[in-house]
Amino acid sequence: MTNLLVVFKKNFERVHDDSLQKITEILHDISGVFDVTFDLTAREKVTRADFIGRDLVVVLGGDGTLTSISHNIDADTPVIGVNSHPAEDYPTGSFGFYMDSNVHTFAEDIVVALKGEAIINEIPRLQAIIDTTSGNRFTTDPAMNDLIVANTHQYAPSKYHLRRDGKKCHQQSSGIVFSTWLGQGAWLNHILEENTLQELRKKVNQDETDTHYFVVSREISHKQRNEDSWSWYDWTSENTVITSDMHRGYVVPDGWDEVHFNRGASITVNLQAPKLCLLTFRQSISSKLSDLIAAKVV
């Protein structure tokens, strides 16, 4: 028996309700053939306990729905992303980079997944480990796309000491953004000029995309950009260690839960969080991103 959980987006828009109804009907149709049991849970109500013991998770919504609940999913549980509001059907719909399935293809896709014939993508995820001055340690939720470390008061500068690869500097910026290779379309391409992003991509070898991540310090002085280019933007596999000189700062993974810290706290960012097992059906996520970069969509 396959124990399946469907997490869906619920915002009272008719399109999402219609998609949920179609997905539910498909699962009822195949439940006898493949011995499937399933539960439905709204994104706003789902908890970590809902994912325990599941053989497969179906996330119905867009990329935001997936990133908002993905931290609850361990590395051994396969996930299918189903776009409930695809842009090809609706002008205001979602592109859904991670959502390789939709209501039109789901009936075929779920059968492929249950037969064990889907493409398995192991998605690297970022994490931040926060060590406080009182000796406590916190690890943030894993981030599929990006993670930011910044002052909680956005009108005030983020002040910190930065260390990586044996190098260190004292920096003042509007915060540091860390991005996975796959997550560069979420934030990275909005905070870097096109020529800078292209220069950064030149640092990348394709065999490094699962082990390295981007680091970008936002809005630092031109003097420091010239003197310490590694601290402005970089592509690295090493830990990035930040010592806070801010009265109050936070770490935000994938734009969701905030984890706060105070002056003197040490924040270590790396790509050692558990990976996410994402199933696709037409091409791998890496090749999809490569196509988008080639087409200059990202």
Number of spatially distinct domains: 2
Structural class: alpha/beta
Tell me the CATH architecture of the largest domain. Answer: Sandwich
Distance, first to last CA: 41 Å
CATH topology of the largest domain: Tumour Suppressor Smad4
Helix content: 10-25%
What is the alpha-carbon Rg in Å? Answer: 20 Å
Q: List how many beta strands DSSP finds.
A: 17
The portion of residues forming beta strands comes to: 35-45%
Q: What is the fourth-level CATH superfamily of the largest domain?
A: Probable inorganic polyphosphate/atp-NAD kinase, domain 2
Sequence of secondary-structure elements: EHEEHEEHEEEEEEHHEHHEEEEEH
| Overall pLDDT confidence | 94
- DSSP summary: helix tally: 8
CATH class of the largest domain equals Mainly Beta
Low-confidence stretches: none
Give a brief description.
The chain is of the alpha/beta class and 298 residues long. It is 23% helix and 36% strand.
Describe this structure in words.
The chain is α/β, with parallel strands linked by helices. It folds into two domains: about 1-115, Probable inorganic polyphosphate/atp-NAD kinase, domain 1 (Rossmann fold, 3-Layer(aba) Sandwich), CATH 3.40.50; about 125-275, Tumour Suppressor Smad4, CATH 2.60.200.30. The chain is built from eight helices and 17 strands. The strands form two sheets. Strands 1, 2, 3, 4, 5, 6, 7, 9, 10, 14 and 17 form an eleven-stranded mixed sheet that branches. It has a six-stranded antiparallel sheet with strand order 13-12-11-8-15-16. Strand 1 (about 1-10), helix 1 and strand 2 form a beta-alpha-beta unit. Helix 1 runs parallel beside helix 3. The longest helix is centred in the first third of the chain and has 21 residues, at about 15-35. The chain starts with a strand and ends with a helix.
